[in-house]
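During the reporting period the student researcher (J.K.) took over the structure-prediction task from the postdoctoral fellow and processed the backlog of single-chain submissions. One of the processed entries is reproduced below for the supervisory committee.
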Amino acid sequence: MPAFLPAPSPGTPGEGWGEGDLELQCRWHSKSPSPPPSPGVPGEGASRSSLWALTAQSGVAVAPEGHESRRAFRRITINPRRNRTGLAPLRVAAKKRLKHSSVLNPLLIAALCCALLRSASAADAPKLWFYYPTNLLPDENIPKLQSVWRRAAAAGYSTVLLSDSKFARLATLPEHYFENCRKVRQIARDLKLDIVPAVFPVGYANDILYNDPILAEGLPVRDTLFVVHDGVAACVADPPVTLAKPAFVDDTVHIADGIATVHGDAVHHRFVFQLALPEFRCYHVSVEIKTEGYTAHPQIAALAGERGLTFTNLNVRPTQNWKRQDIIFNTLDHHDVVLYFGVWDQAKGTLFWRNWKIEEIGLLNVLRRAGTPCTVKIDGGRACEEGNDYEPIRDPHMGNDPWPGEYQVWHEPPVIRTHLPDGTRLRVSWYHPVIIYDEQVCGCISDPKMMALLADQAKRMKSLWDADGYMMSHDEFRVMNWDESCASQHRTPGQLLADNVRRCTALLLPKTAYVWSDMFDPYHNAIAGPYYLVNGPLTGSWEGLDKSVVIVNWNYDHRDQSLKFFADRGNKQILAGYYDGPLSDWKNWLLSARSIPNVIGYLYTTWSQNYDHLDEFAKIAREPTADGK
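J.K. obtained the following structure tokens:
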């Protein structure tokens, strides 16, 4: 028989064992007081009760040489020291004595242990998750939910990541909403699905801002000029600004009679203006657009060096008559701005632009809270007093149109009503939120009122769902560290975010906290910058992650580096393997994760409610990877 492999030394798990080996330890009683005959066996020299071990690799048992006494089998310990799923040792007590020969008994034991290990490994293999966003208030959404969840459960899914914008404002909802939540919990119990609800929407903060729209993160505007006339102070551009002759026009753009016409299948279709503007001023750009079967997406982009100043999408249909489009941008700490009207993609059809304009504006979506002060002073003179020199300033549309938590890109901003003399020049400083893409507005995580809202949400959600874990929605946080609530802390955005996620994790204890990976991943969004409109580096944000926080990793482009980064920090991970893309991406995820420890789940992530690939995703998850593991 082959020689026995030495067992690991105490305190050095896995030493001396091969990849995939199983340690089997059996407590035995010998009828004679002599020690086991095999040299090197653990417990050698014991008189009555000792330990011996064997190695089972690929289901083949190897017994110690010279082993020939009959022993009473008492206990088996399976210790898969290198199992990347984190399988804990499985202990099985035998209820009857097994008499055996020196070869037969180890084989029987190994067969039993391997069967038990396969069963335990299946139970503790990475779990299948799926993402399900919904609105639980309408009754008709419950049967739709049940249908998808039943399909998922049948395909082997065990966990649903559940999101609803109303989770952020439970105090405002009718009893009927909570009745539907109880129905959903029962559906999950019947299907043996665990629910992990989403909480803390601070990056996409519109939902939590429903409770208090002024808690949006604000960009500073400094010393905007207002001039008084007939009891009203209105914004006046200082200096004047216009869009005269473009500094550059692509060959695919033809400008004549005030209309820019775009057609052709080239990649770039742009006309560009170079502007010299003051720092920290706010500007409104408008243009009218007409399309005829146009397949690309027109954009207006303001750039200052490497930083983009605007990220708002235009609402343009493939075919439409003339329609005005609006964006705003803040110059921040830049003087030189390049303004683009253009398309950065190949397209069919025809696009027309006309009436492009720019104007300096004041008090659009003005934020009124302690961390975003609005001050008025006479140009070159004293500070003015609100309620005495001028009426209180308020924008009634700010964060309330069409409902709380929603912000308009453009509307006519408020004026200042005052009894100051005509011709008085005022300098007004204020803060405003920014709309990213279609509607995203970020919250101010440094304002104490925001933390109070998050604490209230955690309390209400834990009471409502009584879940084992909750998903922290700290993803794509694109505006941060501009207002005085943040600036007064003298921290980087990374430090602010680290502090916030640390506090949010504490709010969920003793439950498990999950979080999206991107804002804590140096290979994704936790970078030195510039990152959108974040003021400073996001590096170090990961220092706020406790090892108990489970990372939901969606960094496909840099998955190898990202997976290793979080694994080295000791965090468990869930792979967001399906992201409304090709299933080949999912196979690549699995290949990258094959040597990563503590991967505990696979998440089917759809943002378009596409559950057509649930079964195939699950099937691929169960298949061995390309190297057979």
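The committee noted the following: Residues 219-437 form a domain with the Jelly Rolls fold (CATH 2.60.120.260).
J.K. will present the remaining backlog at the next meeting.
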